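Human: Not sure, check this?
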Amino acid sequence: MLAFISRVLQRSPIGLVCSTALGVAACHGHSAPEPEGTAGGARSEAARSPTGAGSKNLRGVWGAGDHDIWAVGDGGTIVHFDGKTWSASKSGTEENLTGVHGVAANDVWASGDKGTILHFDGASWTQASQEKGLTLLGVWASGPKDVWAAGMDSEGDAGVVRRWDGSKWITQPVPGATSVWAVSGSGPQDVWMVGSNQRGTGLVLHGNGSKFDAVGYDGPGVRGVWGLRPNDVWVAPYQGAIQHWNGSAWSKATMPDSTSPLLRIAGSGPDDVWAAGLGGGMLRYHAGAWSASPSGTKQVLWGVWARTPDDAWAVGNGGTILHWNGSAWSR
């Protein structure tokens, strides 16, 4: 494994490949930075983490409603919020899980290391697929017969995407990509994938369900994407300005001072978008501008999801789970 990491970093001048499989939190520049809050801070905040999560790092969050929230993380950790309390859910795997998304309370998907894809049918989680040569960093579903899981191969030099069509999983390479970090969209004919390319810069692809094309993005490697509709898409680079697609062109957002490196982005509507990242960094787009929103933690925040402007969730290292109530973040 150490030899593999060394090969990846030598080939990739900006450390393109970063995953839980590599034991690296996020890569950019000439080396992978050490995320904040992974040592003593993780232990001190673990005591306040929800039951079931313990001190495990949580990487993704999604909900089917205000009383039905899922968070996934390291070691096969899956926890569920029923509107009152969090509790652990049996995942059936010990692989690190990095993505979670669904279309209904009885149709939820999770993805992670060794090509692991899990499905929740309303009663239990079961393994839907596994390809040990892959690391799947994100998953997104528009319907029961349209599920996308994206990531990279075990060598860390080719992005891949897997699609569920209702009967089988199909694995496809992503031309020009060394890694695909996230996938999102508004429907089966409006799918977005983001990551890094072979030149060491960012890659944004838009697809109609069968074919993907680059959309002229110019910026650093992208870690998060959220698409409300074909002409309203946000992408979050690890470093640099968040960018918005209006259907014909990209525009760079004016960023708050001292913005932390970003890992994920999500929203509930055109005027309610969140971006989360290292050091507890949290940004919100509201009233036509991005501003800092103090999260109350220094832990790395790996995932964010919003249901309404007064109901959002974020998860991160040390079992951190945060809730936005419309005015402030709290544990």
Summary: The chain has one domain: 38-330. Residues 2-11 form the longest helix (10 residues). The helical segments are 2-11, 40-46. The domain at 38-330 is CATH 2.130.10.10 (Methylamine Dehydrogenase; Chain H).
